[in-house]
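ugh ok so i messed up the first submission bc i forgot one of the chains. this is the corrected input, ALL of the components this time, i swear. 544 residues overall. if the numbers dont match what u have on ur side tell me asap before i send this to the collaborators (the ones from the other lab, u know who)
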Amino acid sequence: MTIQEIQNEIIDEFSMFDDWEERYQYMIDLGKTLPLIDAQYKTEDYIIKGCQSKVWVHADLENDKVVFTADSDAIITKGIIAILIRVFSNQHPKDIIEANTDFIDEIGLKEHLSPTRANGLVSMIKQLKMYAVAYQTQLS
Amino acid sequence: MFDTIKIRKDFPILSREVNGEPLVYLDNAATSQTPRQVIDCIVDYYSNYNANIHRGVHTLSQEATDKYEAARQTIQKHFNAQKAHEIIFTSGTTHGINLVANGFSSLLKKRDEIIVSALEHHSNIVPWQMLCEHTGAVLKVIPMNQDGELVMSEFDKLLSQNTKLVFVNHISNALGTINPIEVIIEKAHQVDAAVLVDGAQACPHIKPDVQALDVDFYVASAHKMCGPTGVGILYGKEKWLNLLPPYQGGGEMIAEVTFEKTTYADLPHKFEAGTPNICGGIAFGAAIDYMNTIGFDAIANYEHELLEYATEKLLAIDGLKIYGTSKHKTSVISFNLEGIHPYDVGTILDKMGIAVRTGHHCAQPIMDYFKIPGTVRASFAFYNTKNEIDKLAEGVKKAKMMLS
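and heres the new structure output, hopefully the right one now
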């Protein structure tokens, strides 16, 4: 699936939720269940420091596609990371570079990506794109 | 009987909704809300007498100058400073601290010592580190104990003839501990060290008497005591303020300027370079008048009642731990739910319209001491109610249910 198709799928899924509680419970459950990163990458080298929660990100290139893994010490942040990875992982670097994150607004999680939120997610998205840029250079 | 129903009517913001719920504002230690009386004062300034001060001969400038200087006197009276020119308007507490730190850079020499407390806000640590780098002075730290209190026996050991400055907050922003500044000031003076007290967290709750305390410098911010942001004060004893060199150059702080030499203005203008926050200063005076109308004794009693009620309610929640358990504390409760990140709790509470602070509260050394990433901090003001505390407790229970 393309990034756009995955985003549309997520928007559809979130449209089923009636209120914030259901949305957040879904993200919390995502955050609880997914093992998102290999323990060896949960180090200072891979950390993105938010003011409050920490985020770890790792990237690999497999068959010309970027595979992301990531984690956070806060569970709601981790739930959002799970959604971002579902969108961006296993995609071509060029597509990742060109993609936007407008779907986050549509699923009612906009506040988590505003600059006032100190959770490291804004920096994380920048980091995902930086990895994509680096791999794109490597491929071309 | 403390009439919160009447008081809450003074604060327009308290009737708004957040995320579809009535706002429960429990982040007062970060910034307090503004009563109509102060908002009206700001509107009045810009509607009727906005002008630059101390320079113009025209009527508006005279009126603005009179009001600004009247505010200085209101503040002088509130803090019981001996002289009005011992009150320096600043942009806030951090500015006041930097002003003093900068002034001491010309008074300190190598191996002089500065003592700070382990309970400090970042802004209380960094200026002194910079000062030490610059002068070769040494920074010493009064440690804290498990209750979040300063270990005073260690303070005694740190004090010596080399101590030139002691720096401590009156009340800790992260934990709410009230520090024994009377004892600290007395002991520091025995070795002729100056004492600067950060009153940012204290002034919303108590009325400090700088002469009775015999404190050398005291700093505070208006926005924590019902005033606007961007304005605060530095109180300094006249003899100290005369000793310190000016902090910034500019208009207002000069007496005479030629290219050969500039003579500085007298206090307080020596430290008030450039056009000040005129409206802010006047509104700060209005905020102090407002709080005094309610009365600091009544405020302290009522807030203590809220603190006890909230402590009991929160401790009834299984797995909730409070950080900062001194008997001497103001209406601040820093807490965590076992195994749950404070950021997650804060996010769920926000969804319920409850505003708390989460994170390290700019006091990372304290968080390192407790080995936690941060806390959830609920801080109460005199306009908060027990009903709001019930909502907080319900919110925390819901967060716990969703997150564990």
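quick check: The interface with chain A takes residues 19, 340-344, 347-348, 351, 358-360, 373-374, 402-403 of chain B (CB under 8 Å). that seems consistent at least. The first strand of chain B starts at residue 17 and ends at 18.
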